[in-house]
Amino acid sequence: MSIKLETANPVRSFKGRGMELVASRLADQGATAVVCASAGNLGQALGWSGSRRGLDVTVVARRLAPAVKLDRIRSFGANLELVDGDFEVARERAVTLARQRGVRLVEDSLDLDTCEGAATIGLELVSALSPGDVVLIALGGGAMATGIGHVLKTLAPGVEVVCVQPQGAPALTLSWRARRVVTTDSMDTIADGVAGRFPIAAVLDDLLQVADDAVLVREESIIAGMRMLLEHAGLVVEPSAALGVAAVLEDPDRFAGRHVVTVICGSNVDLHAYQGWVAG
Amino acid sequence: MSIKLETANPVRSFKGRGMELVASRLADQGATAVVCASAGNLGQALGWSGSRRGLDVTVVARRLAPAVKLDRIRSFGANLELVDGDFEVARERAVTLARQRGVRLVEDSLDLDTCEGAATIGLELVSALSPGDVVLIALGGGAMATGIGHVLKTLAPGVEVVCVQPQGAPALTLSWRARRVVTTDSMDTIADGVAGRFPIAAVLDDLLQVADDAVLVREESIIAGMRMLLEHAGLVVEPSAALGVAAVLEDPDRFAGRHVVTVICGSNVDLHAYQGWVAG
User: Fold this and answer.
1) 3-state helix, strand, coil in chain A (%, to 5)
2) pLDDT tens digits for range B145-184
3) For residue A26, what are the domain limits?
4) Taking every annotated instance into account, which residue ranges of this chain make up the domain Tryptophan synthase beta chain-like PALP (chains A, B) (predicted)?
5) Size of interface A-B (CB pairs under 8 A)
6) Domain count, chain A
7) What's the ipTM?
């Protein structure tokens, strides 16, 4: 198994790839402000990339997002607005804010810039892959899966693209299986970075074209995956980054003897919570 | 501060760079066996690179090296011979073994291949550096410092090269300061990867040409450095990899306002010992 490490950068997730694109294009256009909703990582990346270019960045996040993520969003110079409720509430509030202010709204996964950013991961992977290999991608809103998936299906069509989502936040996986948008009433997972209830129809259309499979994993497998990444790679990662390893742990026969690659997409995790999970 | 991450590879240290060179050259020459002494990381790298090319690899290490390092040397297919005593005893035994068997001895730091491997780190760093920047390099036998230092002094002469060694294993730093080989009677440091007592004269000659300074740090600073790398980068590293951060923590004024880069050279650490240090 190989890992594609996306945490060794200032924002500690892959989101910087897309937000560098967004912020540089906005700066080139003379824009002065930008808004996004974020589960925590997108906001850090937009804060980092936007503030360095003089943009006024506003991030809407849920009040109960991991404190480390909220702290880091502020530390990168973004204005942080907190909402009660889950990520979908933050998304609605960001839409309203952007409309009121007349500024660009970055919508993760819907905004093609966010998918293009993730697609650059795929470009870096292609040369290391052969037909029959498997790439496991954490599935949240779908930007990472559609971005990487599009590149792989174009440049390495023999590679299997498998999306992985927690059983406790399965909306996009259920949608992929049903080939239509399926929403859920609630979510229950430690993988805060991929937790959404309302899949975006346009993203699902893309995902149906590039994903070979979408699987759901249990919380205990996510924790076992985090533990493996600690023990075998010396990496402390957030739960979303362990979804690929969790999928292998749950179905080892499926992946036996094959070269499996998974993207370690983020390491913004509260250390105290982490130690509770991994030691438990 | 920036980090140059050298742990995200199968052998979890920078040593693979040199050993890939050694093993591929030996295989090209039709050699069948190779011997080295190792504090633990070189042996893993030679085991990995050599075994994949059909070489019979023998590694001599001290019995009290971290068990994870010894286990991983074996797991990479090397024959492991253990000696009582410190690294210098292992080095003598490896010399004897290689002579008896008539096979190539890889001598870390003396062997130019080991320095050339490390030098490739310097090549990757150059484009990110400007005059006035500082590169902090863990100092053990000297391969990493002379390899990277040579590249920097040639291609980026305005960059300051600072070597960092534990106070508890200061032989090469004392030698650098005295401009002649100084040996010590004993060692006492958790940084097992850089612990030696007998500097090599030829390595010291090179180090005198490329190092701008060599500093010694306390054990508690090494631990604080490990903790910082955990909290700010999500990285579990071995003590040797935290020497550069330790140097900044001990003398923050010296580095204030400057771009400081340090090489995270290894993550082969016993997790139980690590947790004891970092939680303590």
Assistant:
1) 50, 20, 35
2) 999 999 999 999 999 999 999 999 999 999 999 999 999 9
3) 16-106
4) 3-266
5) 37
6) 2
7) 0.92
